[in-house]
Design brief:
5 strands; Fusion Protein Consisting Of Minor Coat Protein, Glycine Rich Linker, Tola, And A His Tag, Chain: A, Domain 2; cell membrane; mainly alpha; two-stranded antiparallel sheet; TonB-dependent_transducer; protein transport; three-stranded antiparallel β-sheet; TonB family protein; TonB_C
């Protein structure tokens, strides 16, 4: 039997055109073409070449229908692989008409392929089989966020009926990931992530990547909800596990950055210092790019200026010391009034940065510049 669904990371790659129809080929030629296409598909998955993965997944599916039969289980698996390959090539952003049209086309193709898989799986395994979860998840990916909820609910119902704790947790987390940044993110969706994280804590070792990544995601939710004690514990746990890796994981940097914000909000600058230094040690300093503060307090708008509708700006220069504190800030230029400069200085002194590292040692970064702009949005009449 063919290999099952291959999970792929999503990026914006050019949609490939399906190669010549298999219908005109002899059975022997179809078998040979199919074998070549499927081998090329597996190779593309291995090398993470998403453009080729899409080309050969679609070609293998079309040839597979002829060689294996449209209603065969292996053809259903090929359809699932092809649907996943299309979804993996969705544009990351759809701000323009071309990207929007491409996204719509790929989703429609993928939706039809997932329907093929779903139909065959139902006939083969039954209406409530756990095998249906994969095509249901695919259908949710190929649908609008509003329509995705129906497929996600069906998938979760099947998982819960299985009494398989790991499958339930995986499905809950998949549900959360698909709706977290949508208008349909609700308390129920939020709780699925919390339930999954609790299950992983019981079922998986501390260093299991699935458990660590879920802890990070739940930590972000806790942080957004200002539950800083719970968020702190989760981020510290994430850092502990990632420190055992022989490379720097992006979530480790992000966890350090969140802890800087938590400790600064709580007035515990000493605690945040170690995390500022950790980020500086892991992240190369770039002289040509303005450093981004790990913690930033926005300046207060001068009340008299706000009442008068005054706008303006203040440009400042400062040093970032070895611990990431702002040192020796000075005003280089002010537009609109001196109070903008005063408020800018007060705010800037509370910012925290990752320090600059040279040869493995934290050093001062001098003449760092920043401009703070002040403006009042005029209400539309």
């Amino acid at each position: 039997m063919l290999q099952g669904r291959q999970r792929l990371n999503r990026r914006n790659l050019i949609c490939a055109t399906l190669l010549a129809s298999a219908m005109v080929l002899s059975p022997q030629a179809v078998a040979s073409e199919f074998g070549d296409a499927y081998s090329a598909y597996k190779a593309a998955v291995t090398t993470k070449d998403k453009a080729d993965t899409q080309i050969y997944a679609l070609k293998a599916y079309e040839l597979g229908k002829v060689k294996l039969g449209a209603d065969s289980l292996d053809t259903a698996i090929l359809a699932l692989n092809a649907g996943d390959a299309l979804i993996a090539n969705l544009p990351e952003y759809t701000f323009d008409e071309e990207s929007t049209a491409k996204s719509k086309k790929l989703k429609q193709q993928a939706f039809e392929l997932y329907q093929v898989t779903q139909g065959t799986y139902r006939k083969t395994y039954g209406e409530e089989a756990i095998e249906l979860i994969d095509p249901l998840m695919g259908l949710s990916d190929a649908s609008s966020k509003k329509d995705a909820r129906e497929y996600l609910d069906d998938a979760l119902d099947i998982a819960e009926d299985s009494d398989d704790a790991m499958l339930i947790a995986d499905t809950q987390m998949a549900y959360f990931e698909r709706l977290v940044n949508s208008p349909y993110y609700t308390r129920k969706v939020r709780n699925y992530a919390f339930d999954a994280q609790e299950a992983y804590s019981e079922l998986l070792p501390e260093n299991a990547m699935k458990r660590v990544l879920t802890s990070f995601r739940v930590g972000n939710v806790r942080f957004a909800e200002k539950d800083y004690d719970e968020a702190e514990a989760l981020f510290l746990g994430v850092i502990t596990q990632f420190q055992k890796l022989d490379y720097t994981h992006p979530y480790e940097l992000a966890a350090h950055a969140k802890l800087v914000q938590i400790y600064e909000l709580d007035g515990e600058s000493e605690k945040s210092t170690q995390h500022c230094i950790a980020i500086g040690n892991m992240k190369p300093w770039k002289e040509d790019i303005e450093p981004t503060p790990l913690f930033r307090k926005n300046p207060d708008y001068p009340i008299s200026y706000a009442r008068a509708g005054k706008s303006g700006s203040a440009q400042l220069s400062f040093t970032i010391d070895e611990m990431g504190f702002v040192k020796d800030p000075v005003v280089l230029d002010t537009i609109g009034g001196e109070k903008f400069a005063t408020e800018s200085l007060l705010a800037l002194k509370q910012w925290r940065y990752a320090p600059k590292f040279v040869d493995g040692k934290a050093v001062e970064a001098k003449e760092v510049k920043v401009q703070l702009d002040y403006y009042i949005e005029k209400k539309k009449r």
